[in-house]
Amino acid sequence: MRILVSGGAGFVASHLCDRLLAEGHTVVAIDNYLTGRRENIRHLEGEPRFQLVEGDVAEKVKLDGGFDAVLHLASPASPLDYLQHPIASMMAGSAGTKNMLDVALEQGARFLLTSTSECYGDPVEHPQKETYWGHVNPVGPRSVYDEAKRFAEALTMAYHRHYGLRTNIARIFNTYGPRMKLNDGRVVPAFIDQSLHERPLTVFGDGSQTRSFCYVSDLVDGLYRLMQSDEALPVNLGNPDEISILEFAEKIQRLTGSRAGIEFKPLPEDDPKQRQPDISKARRLLGWEPKVGLEEGLWRTIEYFRNSG
Ligand code: UDP
Hints:
By secondary structure, the chain is an alpha/beta fold. The protein has a single domain (2-179, 214-240, 277-292), classed as NAD(P)-binding Rossmann-like Domain (Rossmann fold, 3-Layer(aba) Sandwich). The chain has ten helices and 13 strands. The protein has a seven-stranded parallel beta sheet, sandwiched between helices. A two-stranded parallel ribbon has the order 7-10. It has a two-stranded parallel ribbon with strand order 8-13. Strand 5 (110-116), helix 5 (143-163) and strand 6 (167-172) form a beta-alpha-beta unit. Helix 3 (86-93) runs parallel beside helix 5 (143-163) and helix 8 (245-256) packs across helix 10 (294-308). The two termini are 36 Å apart. The relative contact order is 0.14.
């Protein structure tokens, strides 16, 4: 297949490009480098089946055609990034999604949207199933991401229902691994960076809030399976192994040998108190489940950050 990947220089998308190329496909990646980085795809320079286009998906971009699939991953994804780029985040989810859907429609290509567990907001249902409608503050600081993605999901379903476009929606839960930006503010790079430099780990709130972390190769495998399925309704992709942020901090200190301790900081507004994917739908539909355990994945990620910086 000839596949368009938006946000191709980003953390998740760059790994997906690697996988698509390894499966024998041809990849055209588009990125405006707002939060993506050239170094994430530098190893693909000179690869004849890979092409990189600099451009913003929220604008009309001229692309050579012939696509069989359009995978829309372009968006800031870390809370720090989307709070710093609120309008660009909303545009990537809204105009960006429309433009990518239109490319798919014009080309007769299939379409996949990477959505987010943030659609569930600060969830009242736990763990979160795809049927849960969420508990989102539509005007809070995080809404620039949450509501843009919810709009993107609604628009994707509208194209599916109205035009019969073949679409998929992945709701991605917290993902980590090599190529995350050290300073993107997310908890995995933040804690690893702090530990490697013997600085105290900044735990927000009392650290009792939970997350469930999925290693990037597992997520990419889920995305690759999903894009081959005919399921149009959202599918959760994440690792159900749930941990409190305080326990997570202690784990990273143990793995890195850091003795710098913990510093408690205020909890950001609307920070979800708990998050854990129910992945029974992905298991049943895609035969997918994560394989890389948290310690194994963290070892690989710590190794990456040690060597990159
Ligand atoms: N967090 C933290 N210290 C940090 C960064 C994040 O305690 O230096 C917390 C944050 O408040 C949240 C969790 O870790 O409860 C995950 O945050 P992240 O920004 O990685 O992603 P989110 O799941 O909030 O999108």
